[in-house]
Amino acid sequence: MLLQHAFGLFTHPADEWVSIRKEHETPVRLYVAYVLILAAIGPICAYISTAHFGWTVGSERLIKLTEISALQLSVLTYLAMLVGVFALGYAINWMARTYGANEEHVPSNGVALAAYSCTPLFLAGFALLYPVPWFNAAVFLAAACYGAWLMYDGLPIVMGIEKEQAVLYGGALLTVALVILVATRVGSVILWNYGIGPVFVG
């Protein structure tokens, strides 16, 4: 089962990457059995915490979102995560030939590398049940760092390249990931201007 890899990537990542390369799952199966499930953790936890628990900044009053607003934002976040993982996977495959790897007609290895590298970020979504901004920021920063390391560690194994090439390849992919992140932030601002922004409980 693909979800077993989530545990293995924290305990013995090198062996897990070898197993992932051998499986060579199609992007569709990988999405259905892994990404759709784990990517839902953050949005579900965010919905529960923002609509029902609320949060405070300093000594200010408790802040909450309306249930409809929290649901809208959670669904949009979920969709953005799915698109982001898929886009990163295609970027990995698209840049493969540049860094000495084989570009695939169906980008199975690229999407797998993107999806499994995002595992720490998916699991960090549990931290949103405790809606304290500094705590959430610290958890997601640590998860992003470990995810970047997983990608660097997995690139030579999954894409079949030299370790030295993985440094340049990984740097290029992190740049792509940041562009995707900025694009989602810009998309959020555009949607907020169309009225799909946060609505706070009065």
TrEMBL record:
<dbReference type="InterPro" id="IPR006977">
    <property type="entry name" value="Yip1_dom"/>
</dbReference>
<feature type="transmembrane region" description="Helical">
    <location>
        <begin position="108"/>
        <end position="128"/>
    </location>
</feature>
<keyword id="KW-1133">Transmembrane helix</keyword>
<feature type="domain" description="Yip1">
    <location>
        <begin position="7"/>
        <end position="183"/>
    </location>
</feature>
<protein>
    <recommendedName>
        <fullName>Yip1 domain-containing protein</fullName>
    </recommendedName>
</protein>
<keyword id="KW-0472">Membrane</keyword>
<dbReference type="GO" id="GO:0016020">
    <property type="term" value="C:membrane"/>
</dbReference>
<feature type="transmembrane region" description="Helical">
    <location>
        <begin position="134"/>
        <end position="155"/>
    </location>
</feature>
<feature type="transmembrane region" description="Helical">
    <location>
        <begin position="31"/>
        <end position="55"/>
    </location>
</feature>
<dbReference type="Pfam" id="PF04893">
    <property type="entry name" value="Yip1"/>
</dbReference>
<keyword id="KW-0812">Transmembrane</keyword>
<feature type="transmembrane region" description="Helical">
    <location>
        <begin position="75"/>
        <end position="96"/>
    </location>
</feature>
<feature type="transmembrane region" description="Helical">
    <location>
        <begin position="167"/>
        <end position="192"/>
    </location>
</feature>
